[in-house]
UniProtKB/TrEMBL annotation:
MF annotations from Gene Ontology: calcium ion binding
Protein name according to UniProt: C2 domain-containing protein
SMART domains for the chain: C2 (SM00239)
Biased composition (Low complexity): 126-142, 170-185
Source superkingdom: Eukaryota
GO cellular component: membrane
CDD domains per record: C2_Smurf-like, WW
Domain WW: 201-219
Pfam families per UniProt: C2
Amino acid sequence: MAADGLYKRDLLRFPDPFAVVTVDGEQTHTTSVIKKTVNPYWNESFEVRVKESSIIAVQIFDQKKFKKKDQGFLGVINLRVGDALDLSLGGDEMLTRDLKKSADNIVVHGKLIVNLSTSIHTPARTAAQSSAAGQSSLGTSTPPQGSALNSMASLSNGLGSSANPRDATAPPAGAPSNNSPAGSSTNVNGQAYSSFEDHLGRLPTGWERRTDNLGRTYY
């Protein structure tokens, strides 16, 4: 996963971009921060569980401005898994998507490049297992190794040349939704967070993380 041509908001400094990958507003992974660049490349691996209707949201932020009002927002893409891959057949797709604005209409530039690949393994199943066949596993990874639980989809941090969701309706990732069951919490890299904190610590006074009915997180 990589970005190309991010917007440089400050005249005298480049952004320190990082990406937040969220699936259906529940599974959240955050990349490392790449210092002083508008063309970051994240060589990292993530694995999450998906189904055909799952929405992958990738937001990019400037780490130095993440605690400010606009969170250093640099763009977002929202991708439906079934529009990019056939999980029953497997495959490998390198996708390039234009970064979109947030609901705040902040100017963004650039593209996000991400590689989606699947590795399918279908052992003998019981009737109960067969009923769950629509559930797959999606991960950001280097090229897949060919092993999986039921069917496996891998989202790769691969780049052919030169990654908590936000577009017109999609904000930062990783929060429990008003539509989520009572008592639920966001799990980021194995750690649970309340609606008043995220992977960078407690939110400013008066802030709270929520998720809309499409699984997209906002503040």
